[in-house]
Specification:
Blueprint (H helix, E strand, L loop, with lengths): L1 H11 L4 H13 L3 H15 L5 H12 L7 H10 L6 H13 L3 H13 L6 H20 E7 L4 E7 L9 H12 L6 H13 L3 H11 L7 H14 L3 H13 L6 H13 L3 H13 L6 H13 L3 H13 L6 H13 L3 H21 L3 H14 L5 H13 L3 H16 L1
Antiparallel strand pairs: 1-2
Helix pairs in contact: 1-3, 2-3, 2-4, 3-4, 4-5, 4-6, 5-6, 6-7, 6-8, 8-9, 8-10, 10-11, 10-12, 11-12, 12-13, 12-14, 13-14, 14-15, 14-16, 15-16, 16-17, 16-18, 17-18, 17-19, 19-20, 19-21, 20-22, 21-22
Amino acid sequence: MKCLLLTVSSHKGRVSCRSVSICIRFLGRQGRIKEALCVFEEMESKFGCKPDNLVYNNMLYVLCKKESSGHLIDFALAVFRRIESPDTYSYSNMLVGLCKFGRFETAVEVFGDMCKSGLVPTRSAVNALIGDLCSFSAKEGAVEKVRVKDPYRTFTILVPKVGGNSDAIQPAVGVFWEVYKLGLLPSAFVIIRLISGLCQLGKAEEAVKVLKAIEGKKLSCVEEGYCIVMKALCEHCYVDEASNLFGRMLSHSMKPKLAVYNHVITMLCKLGNVDDAERVFKIMNKNRCLPDGMTYSALIHAFCEAGNWETAYGLLIEMLGLGCSPHFHTYRLVDKILRENGQMDLCLKLERKLETLTLQKLCKDGQLEAAYEKLKTMIEKGFYPPVYVRDAFQNAFRRYGKSKIAQELLEKIDEIDRT
């Protein structure tokens, strides 16, 4: 390509900037960085043309966006500073390169100069700047440098930082608000990274501001952002803030995910607000969001601590009816409160329900030996599973050609029923 430019120059005189620009871009795409630099440096002396913005931008593209060596970023800065009137692409290419090679302070300075010039960066540049600043802030917030002295030499080590450095993410937040004022938003995955970073560093209030700024933009990340912020607020037991944000979700016709309901219910149960937790549970059912074991466990523990055995028992029966197996501690807690209140018949009923569910799961998973022992134990206790569970037991053994073994055990139940 360089030889072609020399041939054109010798036959027709000056080579246009467009031709040089195409040559630089082509060489860059081929990974021939040194040759592209050579063409750029020699374009005035050998080709008789002065670089314009198109040439500068393609040179910056090669140095900053392609797989070039880190030491070339200083040369890219020198090229950038030679441009009399940098345009959007000049700044954007430079921002991507600086972030790529970890020159974040310089990147923020270049971004500030760009804003002063009234130019709007490309979305890819904004994504790189905010995304990499968030990654950098996570590292800065997680460790700190400590000087260690010994008799021979002094050296520095990195140790975990208790509580993190909440100010480390501020440059990323500042960039977000600047581009927001310019009418530009980063991509959804970058916004999520920013919100996550803020929550991890204990800046949930700042995350809420970012969330409110984007909620009217119809972005796909809004509901995921709400879930992240709700988790952070609930984990720190910020009841008022979490309640307001939860109400905001409902008022905007959003359908909170199961995780959001679980965070809110768990927080309220932890604080002993069982009435509020029950109200949220009813909203959950009304919105047809199916609860899971975590939902029920939090509520059951809270009602047991409040001494409300009726509701705790009802929730556990409902949980078993949905096929959710309770943790052993949860079952024991309900069993204990029932015994303390003289509800021995309900204890027996609960044990039968749990045994039946366990047998069903063993049959479903094909654990024939365990299923056989479980049914045998149930019969010895006088627990006889319902017909649909017996059918499941027989079908499980039939699939593996062992229906005779199952039939022998089931016949014992039939004999007991007849007597």
